[in-house]
Amino acid sequence: MPSLELSVAPLELPLVHTFTIARSSESVARTALVRLRWGEIDALGESSPSARYDESVESVMAGLHARHLGNDPYAIDALLDGLPPAERCGLDVALHDCIAKDVDRPLWRLLGLDPARTPLTSFTIGIAALDEMLAKVREVGAHPVIKIKLGAGNEIETIAAIRAIYAGTIRIDANEAWTAESAVTILHELERFGIEFCEQPIPAGTPERLRWIKERTSIPIVTDEDSKDARDLLALAGCVSGINVKLVKCGGIRGALEMIHTARALGLRVMLGCMVESAILSTAAAHLSPLVDWADLDGPFLVARDPFEGLTYADGKIVLPERSGLGVVEKAVPA
Fold first, then answer.
1. Contact 280, 117 (CB under 8 A)
2. CATH number attached to the domain at 4-106
3. Which pLDDT belongs to residue 335?
4. Neighbours of 110 (CB within 10 A)
5. Among 249, 312, 320, 332, which residue's beta carbon has the most beta carbons within 10 A?
6. Tell me, which fold does domain 110-330 have in CATH?
7. Coil, helix or strand at residue 217
8. HSE of 157, CA atoms in CB hemisphere, 13 A
9. Which residues, listed in sequence order, are joined to residue 38 by a DSSP beta bridge?
């Protein structure tokens, strides 16, 4: 049996627009590109680590370069054991791509999922001056769902102006920027604009404060930073309406499946999200999307020059690749 050969390198992804949230801003996203070779099979993985969770592209590269993999990609538990989430994510995705390619099936089929059940994805509008945000909304055109990043002030004015030009579904995300008291005040003012849900209004770590907010607004509350992996979910039950699952937070596809099933057992709704990343990681998450209520898998929308292609969209609905594995391929380099 051939050995598993692993390489990890930084991947720089120039963005269409500078992407700003309440705590950070970037015009070029950096991720860790994982390549795994097993005999004749070339598999791809990716990790998009965040300083918010004390991981970086450099830490992922160092950790995976030091990993001895042996020769069996099916030994997933042993191969991932002890890895921090972002390192685990990159290797987990590459292993799933490798295994699905070995049996010559798309990953969604290997998991027994129905590609017709994929949800719509939102298109994220980052924080900017109001005229810039409105211009971005106009660029979105008829896309049926948008997510507006908030947390820099002028929230009511921003959403009122966007709603005046956009009739589709609006989600909002404060990325921990508010206090519980200010969240209730802001959300009460935003109720008239038909907001689908609000993501992570306050800093992570106080589920009972999320419950306090939930009891005082009709806008559903969804966690992100508060829901890193399945172990976080019991404390959130009854405090929020749903959770955001991101592969890089929970350690990849296996961790995401654990989160999804745990959330369902606790009566929580589920969204699949992403960081700013290439089509590799967004497509890996998309294979799980028939299991969830909402998707925010818009990485390929935000990247100006993505060297990979995988998932596609039909009027906002996620379309899964039919190719084996993740179904991700490298784009041809112009001559």
1. no
2. 3.30.390.10
3. 47
4. 17
5. 249
6. TIM Barrel (3.20.20)
7. coil
8. 9
9. 4, 41
